[in-house]
Amino acid sequence: MFKNSVYAAIATHDTPLIQGALDLIDKYQVPRDKYEFQMLYGVTPQKRRQLVQNGHRMRVYIPFGEQWFGDSTRRLKENPAMVSHILNALVYRG
Predict the structure, then answer these.
(1) More confident residue, 29 or 93
(2) What is the dihedral of CA 66, 9, 60, 86, to 10 degrees?
(3) Closest C-alpha to 68, from 94, 42, 36
(4) CA nearest neighbour of 63 among 55, 49, 73
(5) Which end of the chain has less Cβ packing within 10 Å, N or C?
(6) Residue-level pLDDT at 16
């Protein structure tokens, strides 16, 4: 996507994946308006802030509406490792 100037949405909280994306952004000299990072509200807030402070675009996903609980549960089933991030977010403001 970066090589072909396709707008990329990088939706992850995983540090190695974020670093890999940043490495590719540097390698292909991708302009900042050609990609964005996407993260869930309250999950890894420090990573989110760090990316924004370094000038990267960030879209924050917040479950909303009548189906918020089902959507949130589905995401936890897809990635059980996020439970610890969510529990931390409940204790420390995200």
Answers:
(1) 29
(2) 80
(3) 42
(4) 73
(5) N
(6) 96
